[in-house]
Amino acid sequence: MKVDPSNADALHSWDGDDGDRWVEYDDIFDGCLARYDNALLDAVRPADRVLDVGCGTGSITRAAARRATSADGIDLSSQMLALAEHRAKVEGLDNVRFVHGDAQVYDFEPESLDVVVSRAGVMFFGDPVAAFTNLRRALRPGGRLAALVWQPLAENEWMAALMRTINGPTEIRTGAYSLADPVEVERVLDAAGFTGATVTGIREPVSFGPDPVRAYDFFAGLGPVRAALAGPDTGTERRLRALLDAHTTTDGVQFGAAMWLVGGVRSRSVPGHR
Questions:
Q1: Would 274 be classed as within a structural domain?
Q2: Residue 224 domain-assigned (yes or no)
Q3: Closest to 164 (Cα-Cα) out of 222, 230, 243
Q4: CA-to-CA distance for 258 and 116, rounded, in angstroms?
């Protein structure tokens, strides 16, 4: 599999322990953003050929396939893709295909797609401009991009509260929040050959399981939390459990959250771009 060197660490993570953990807690990962799904899927039309970037276990890919002519999903995690393929087979979907690859450098067929979608999957590219340029080449002229990315940390109670609880960083500008600034989003899309960039705010709660016990098990395995729990601060577990108890509702453990729905169009003429 061809992987850009800037994404080598991501491959090691997602095709390793993080991928295993995602499969183990797929119900939480998948349910976490469920309230945002329809806003993303509204970009899919019946005649579309769809690509889902960072597809994970494939819930968005399969949902797109039910609405469109075909849907492909691409991800770095072989474990998540195996589960995605299994679920597509169980659901009887024959217009779905899953690819183990790095979307930043994958050799997509030029101008073969109508729409690229992604739910929290495009923020982790080592070189965002190169990645979106590669995706733009795969779109037909006039093809569309629709992606959900996180708004800034201050707008996401779930992460801000978690970082305070484990005495983690109060500012995060890379990784999950690399596209939190609309100005940066527009700069990246313009440099990659997209026009008509739109950045629309959506605010919905995120859910982390049916009860605080399940939620604690989920959070305790995340890298920064795991490190904090193993550190010298013996009060971390108590604070984390108290935080989750305080956010337990009749609909499970919920926190405030906010995402951007990013849109763009592959221009019919892209001067200066291959």
A1: no
A2: yes
A3: 243
A4: 21
Q: Considering the domain boundaries, does residue 273 fall inside one?
A: no
Pairwise CA distance, residues 32 & 255, whole Å: 10
Query: What is the rounded distance in angstroms from the CA atom of residue 32 to the CA atom of residue 29?
Result: 5
Domain count of the fold of the chain: 1
Q: Which domain holds residue 153?
A: 5-266
Task: Classify burial at 197, counting beta carbons within 10 Å of its beta carbon; exposed 0-12, middle 13-18, buried 19 or more.
Answer: middle
Q: In this structure, how many other beta carbons lie within 10 angstroms of the beta carbon of residue 9?
A: 11
Q: Report mean pLDDT in 10-residue bins for the chain, 274 residues.
A: 92 88 91 95 98 97 98 97 97 98 97 97 95 98 97 93 80 77 97 96 96 94 87 90 96 97 85 50
Where residue 32 sits, what CATH number does that domain have? 3.40.50.150
Number of Cβ within 10 Å of residue 231's Cβ equals 11
Q: Which two tokens stand for residue 71?
A: 């849907």
| 178 is a domain residue | yes
Residue keyed to tokens 């800034």? 152
Q: Are 120 and 231 within 8 A, CB to CB?
A: no
Count of beta carbons in the 10 Å neighbourhood of residue 262: 23
